[in-house]
Amino acid sequence: GLKSPFEVSDLLHSHAEKALNFSHNQSEVDNEELEMILHDIRTMATLGEYYAFKIAGSTNLAIYRETSQKDYQNRAVEDLQKALEEWKTYTKLSAEEYKNPLWTNRVGYVNWDHLTEWAEDDIAIALGENK
User: Fold this and answer.
1) For residue 41, how many C-alpha atoms fall within 13 Å in the half-sphere facing its CB?
2) Average pLDDT of the chain to the nearest whole number
3) Where would a tag sit more exposed on the chain, N or C end, judged by fewer CB atoms within 10 A?
4) Among 28-32, 39-43, 92-96, which is the least confidently predicted range?
5) Are strands 102-104 and 108-110 parallel, antiparallel or unpaired?
6) Which residues pair with 109 in a beta bridge?
7) How large is the average pLDDT for residues 28-40?
8) Global pTM value
9) Cα 103 to Cα 30: distance, rounded to the nearest angstrom
């Protein structure tokens, strides 16, 4: 059935944690191709964590805007700060394999530094600062 944004966030966290645990629990790998695959798993799992926190943060912010209950704003800021940290980890892992900006056929150039600024802007927006 239909899932709430918080359920989607929880599901993303669950899958990302399983992938991270799997990739980190591999014994010393003496195979370059396998190590690259494990690195890709860690990178994509970290991106999943970023989206999980971003979804939860955006949802908490929307609830705050509807209810004016400060707890939701605080949760939004906390989630979006965690999202920023996951994004920074993702870009660090990605930079180990790819150059920035990265060309993709679907969206053209992806500039991680620019997107990091947007993740920082999300926090400012949740705090009610003009950006």
Assistant:
1) 17
2) 88
3) N
4) 28-32
5) antiparallel
6) 103
7) 85
8) 0.85
9) 30
pLDDT of 67-107, one tens digit each?
Answer: 999 999 999 999 999 999 999 999 899 888 766 555 555 65
Residue type, 48: G
pLDDT of residue 107: 58
DSSP string, the chain: ----HHHHHHHHHHHHHHHHHHHHTPPPP--HHHHHHHHHHHHHHHHHHHHHHHHHHHHHHHHHHHH--HHHHHHHHHHHHHHHHHHHHHHHHHHTTS-SSEEETTTEEE-HHHHHHHHHHHHHHHHT---
Task: Report the distance separating Cα 131 and Cα 122, nearest Å.
Answer: 9
Q: Which residues contact 6 (CB under 8 A, 6 or more apart)?
A: 55, 56, 59
Tokens found for residue 74: 């605080």
Nearest to 41 by CA among 25, 60, 53: 25
The vertex-114 CA angle with 104 and 42, nearest 5°, equals 60
